[in-house]
């Protein structure tokens, strides 16, 4: 027994070895056959090196080595069906160069002018949607880079003269040769925005990090927001598309955060308690009209303790009524009624110096509730979500602040100052306003986005070289992408889809970042060619069932600057399809692994249109430009 056991063991061991060798042999054969058949898929073709030169490094993140072939190796549904149109999208006619689908100056004529209803978003639906690519204006050039762009823009890019003439005395913008020059004038500050902002800084703590997010209603060419960049303050400059021709387009061309918008009947597309300061310099809004609706909307979006700065009529009417060609008694009445409404909203007037008046929103509503009968305050809004603001009608009521335990507490909590605010756990997370998002999630999300942004920087050289300025994040989540970009000289429009599972826009504002709600089945409230980089994380899988993804691509192309870039992150199946759409809208794109490497199903479609286009594509754009 003692001898037979090792023998038996040896026999079975030999069998196992033979079996292993056979398996290894068969596997190797199968591997090499597979390798031979799929060599194009497995290796990365470097378009910048000698043709057919293969690079076996799958994980490198250098752009030339990340062009992968993901075609047809997945599920059957990925293969375009026979009726799937792969033709490149045609260009729109030349008169579409400044087409804004939801702010179309022709379409707006169908809508009433009362209460500026015609200037609200009215988006085309179904067959009304334009399915062509917006051509650039003739002579279009690479925009002036930031920070020079704050003061100069190419006239060819925004070829509109009206403001250079109608606002000449107020120094909004001048035309000098082929450049538009922005000397920093405005209706309320013809002799320069610097002195004007310095005056405000004597009343409002602009230099301390207390004020970071500002809303400028009726922004003109956004010179106010431009000046505030010197204080590290981010201003959302808002104005409609009206007789102040292309004002918002000028602002964006200057590299300033701006969006088309109007105080009309809908809430502004921001959550409650978003802005540290709101400002109107002669913005022509009837603040006391419509039962005080508009001042109540400002109250909704101001954070507790936020500042409201008003200049222009009726402020300082005693000195200015002649210049404004108004009757002093009318202006006096107007001011009295603003003062009265502000009091009834429980705001405190903190100063009126020369042309500028400043009020402050209370830090909580304890007093306001107690005194509401004596003050004859408007009613507090009934329980509706104060952060809902996508096509939501305004109501003449005071948006209640979160409850506090004592008079000295700030409703919702005390915000830390900028820049600490950016990475401090937001109060809405601490107070558990957002389902299932913890402080740990927030910190992990920040770390994740740092890694992702560093990967993006290694792929898109213009990002790491600081050449991008206006950035759009189509699905901003907690704002981690924008926060990780803060090392670059950029600003980010953080978009939270109106039907996102979690409404995180309040968190984004608490971090001291800007953003808006949006439904990506519609067009964004901006002009064509206004963003250098668009980031679309998970947006395609989110909208796939909701609307035609081709329309989403056409819209992205509309807002993207001609030499801009796009980063689309999604599941490999979606990315494979996205590549087909990217080709149809004539982008220079390639599929890449994410920073998680080749074995993770999340992939990235990078688009970099600063890459030279081939002759056919250049011709087709030029053809449109000259016809
Ligand atoms: C006389 S300009 C003043 C521009 C700038 N604030 C300045 O001081 O130079 C009036 C501005 O208010 C905007 N505006 C007029 N009605 C508005 C409304 N209902 N909502 C938002 N902006 C409005 C105009 O489009 C324009 O930008």
UniProtKB/TrEMBL annotation:
Membrane topology, record value: Single-pass type II membrane protein
GO BP: any one term: methylation
Domain of life: Eukaryota
Keyword list, A-Z: Glycoprotein, Membrane, Methyltransferase, Signal-anchor, Transferase, Transmembrane, Transmembrane helix
Record's keyword annotation contains Membrane: yes
GO CC annotations on file: endosome; membrane; trans-Golgi network
Gene Ontology molecular functions: methyltransferase activity
Entry-linked CDD domains: AdoMet_MTases
Cellular compartment(s): Endomembrane system; Membrane
EC number: 2.1.1.-
Main location: membrane
Similarity annotation: Belongs to the methyltransferase superfamily.
Protein's name in the database: Methyltransferase
